[in-house]
Specification:
The protein is mostly beta strands. The chain is built from no helices and 11 strands.
Length: 117
């Protein structure tokens, strides 16, 4: 059974930083495509950042230069460092894993990030 567990959300002031972690189990993590999505109230879920098994990355234009996604295959964990946070970054952030053998998507339960003074 695949399980993704996020941690690291919370309240941060505009301009501040926050780090998210997602630990996976039940899948071949090293080859899986790992992503962070977010969903703000009243809006659709959107891709924030993605990292492949070969550590290729891509980012939403709105976070380029401020967010960094990394992975540690030895710990089955993907991270996202978020700097210079803006109020529009307030959302529930979800970790997602896509297996390359079956092209199946799995989701974590989400973690709330609130950017507010």
């Amino acid at each position: 059974q695949v399980r993704l567990v996020e941690s690291g959300g919370g309240l941060v002031q505009p301009g501040g930083s926050l780090g998210l972690s997602c630990t996976a189990s039940g899948l071949t993590f090293s080859s899986s495509i790992m992503s962070w999505f977010r969903q703000a109230p009243g809006k659709e879920r959107e891709l924030v950042a993605r990292i492949t098994g070969t550590r290729g990355t891509n980012y939403a234009d709105s976070v380029k230069g401020r967010f960094t996604i990394t992975r540690d295959n030895a710990k089955n964990t993907v991270y996202m460092q978020m700097n210079s946070l803006k109020p529009e970054g307030t959302a529930v952030y979800y970790c997602s894993a896509r297996t390359i053998t079956t092209w199946t998507d799995y989701w974590g339960q989400g973690t709330q990030v609130t950017v507010s003074s």
